[in-house]
Specification:
It is a single chain. Helix 2 runs antiparallel to helix 3. By secondary structure, the protein is mostly helical. It has one domain. It contains three helices and no strands. The chain is about 70% helix and about 0% strand. Keywords: Cell membrane, Membrane, Transmembrane, Transmembrane helix. It is found in: Cell membrane.
């Protein structure tokens, strides 16, 4: 948790863990026997994949936002160097 707070290294670790969990749940979907599975269990697995996907997308957005340069707004005068 400390690495997550102090730098980008933590984002990469969390992204990897979330991606692996998504793959594990999707693998569970593939291996399920649908006729022996309740609808509530399928709903729970689906909501788990959805929530993990939202967390993954959020971390991707945070990384993308941190990587974009801070450009001046259009119409503002350029600062001399």
């Amino acid at each position: 948790m400390h690495q997550l707070v102090i730098g980008k290294h933590g984002y990469l670790q969390v992204n990897t863990i979330v991606a692996i969990r998504i793959l594990a749940v999707v693998r569970k979907h593939i291996l399920l026997e649908i006729e022996n599975t309740s609808g509530l269990f399928l709903l729970a697995l689906g909501s788990g994949v959805l929530s993990l996907g939202i967390v993954f997308a959020l971390f991707q957005w945070i990384e993308w936002k941190d990587d974009t340069p801070n450009l001046p707004s259009p119409g503002t005068p350029m600062q001399p160097r």
